[in-house]
Design a protein that fits this description.
By secondary structure, the chain is an alpha+beta fold. Helix content is about 30%, strand content about 30%. A six-stranded antiparallel β-sheet has the order 1-2-4-3-7-6, with helices on both faces. A six-stranded mixed β-sheet has the order 5-8-9-10-11-12.
């Protein structure tokens, strides 16, 4: 077992964990607030910090406000547990959304990746470095686009040939103003979140 702690955020990595044990732990309601990533025997359990939760929630709200103003249909899947038993891989994003595939999952209360698509967009907040190769895991499951924010920069990756290539603009949420989003995230504490979101929306 390995342990990483930074700014109140804690990651525990467990090795040689069976798929059955992972499923049991993932279905345990007592682990609320802890995010799990399972990659072929490696199980990482992350307890998020206040800073982590603040950034992920605010960035998610910016995505949702942008989609509202621009009339883009989306379905939030937030930190849903997505599992692929055939790959022995599973993950929970900080935030995730169906956009292009919104109609395919509209009204569904459960997602089965054997028949349903993965989310079109996954947002990850990285205050500490994950011990698992999260990008490789997301690529194997077929997530088209990933955004990663580390408290300073927002990186965008688009799936191509089983890997993510860096892109300058989102392909699943066209026109999203990343510079304004990062400025909003960095302004946390200077005004209420409601005020920061209002300023963001005024620029759309």
């Amino acid at each position: 077992m390995s342990l990483t702690t930074t700014q109140g955020e804690q990651r525990v990595l467990l090795r040689s964990i069976s798929w059955q044990t992972y499923e049991t732990l993932a279905d345990n309601p007592d682990r609320a607030g802890r995010l799990m990533t399972y990659d072929q025997g490696l199980l990482e359990i992350m307890s998020p910090s206040m800073a982590h939760e603040s950034d992920k929630s605010l960035l998610g709200r910016l995505v949702e406000m942008y989609s509202l103003v621009r009339g883009i249909d989306l379905a939030s899947s937030a930190s849903t547990t997505f599992k692929r038993p055939d790959l022995k891989r599973g993950f929970e994003a900080d935030e995730s959304y169906y956009i292009q595939n919104e109609r395919r999952v509209r009204g569904k209360r459960e997602i089965d990746l054997a028949i349903d698509p993965p989310p079109d967009l996954v947002i990850e907040i990285g205050m500490t470095r994950s011990a698992t190769n999260k990008l490789a895991l997301l690529a194997s499951i077929g997530v088209p686009e990933v955004w990663r924010y580390d408290g300073e920069t927002l990186w965008l990756g688009r799936l191509a040939n089983d890997d993510y290539r860096s892109i300058a603009a989102s392909e699943v949420l066209a026109g999203f103003p990343f510079d304004d989003a990062v400025a909003t995230l960095k302004a946390v504490g200077s005004a209420s979140e409601t005020e920061l979101i209002r300023r963001f929306v005024e620029k759309l």
